[in-house]
Amino acid sequence: xxxxxxxxxxxxxxxxxxxxxxxxxxxxxxxxxxxxxxxxxxxxxxxxxxxxxxxxxxxxxxxxxxxxxxxxxxxxxxxxxxxxxxxxxxxxxxxxxxxxxxxxxxxxxxxxxxxxxxxxxxxxxxxxxxxxxxxxxxxxxxxxxxxxxxxxxxxxxxxxxxxxxxxxxxxxxxxxxxxxxxxxxxxxxxxxxxxxxxxxxxxxxxxxxxxxxxxxxxxxxxxxxxxxxxxxxxxxxxxxxxxxxxxxxxxxxxx
Length: 255
Fold this sequence. Notes:
By secondary structure, the protein is an alpha/beta fold. It contains eight helices and seven strands; from the N terminus they run E-H-E-H-E-H-E-H-E-H-E-H-H-H-E. The protein has helices at 13-22, 38-47, 61-74, 103-133, 158-179, 198-204, 214-222, 229-240; strands at 2-8, 27-33, 50-55, 80-87, 140-145, 186-191, 250-252. A seven-stranded parallel sheet has the order 3-2-1-4-5-6-7, sandwiched between helices. Helix 1 links the parallel strand 1 (2-8) and strand 2 (27-33). Helix 3 runs parallel beside helix 4 (103-133) and helix 4 (103-133) runs parallel beside helix 5. The model has no long low-confidence stretch (mean pLDDT 93).
């Protein structure tokens, strides 16, 4: 039996680092990203692992959810040891006051960062609950990759902060729902720490006049306080495997 893991935003940054670690013969890994990663394909071949990469734009969360639903409905759960959904994909639009963010960029930040995770989580919970009705008893987990910016307001970051705050709160709500069900899923919205990824590059390239916290992010890089994507992936996956996963729905990787 294989562990089933569905991962969004797996083609770069933290998502790619997480995916690298998950590639193994014991894991059936489904990656949903705008682009596929040749590195993952090659790694899967080298390790004899089963990795499916779907080129999906999460701006259309309904279409992504329909594809995942159709695939899950065709899967025989008797070959699945556990089922996990990791919502990692996110978008940071132009850095600046809300009035300077284009409608398209604002919609994309909320669709990719909040709407798509909610749609995918709803479908995942519904179908795996149907598996339970058929006698399947594997553990079910949803791990939402959040941010400290979902818990602390920052000027020039309204869309991203709002998406991450929504991610935290919908995780709380779903955790309450699942706690009422026999064999309910465990859900956590996890802040992974400050990571040296393209998003940090984007923050450091901001306009100081529009982004009061610019120097803070410049100093994080200069002072070596950024975790590598690989180190962050280690911590995220260690948290996923903790025996108390889901006891608190909103967490920080440093907890």
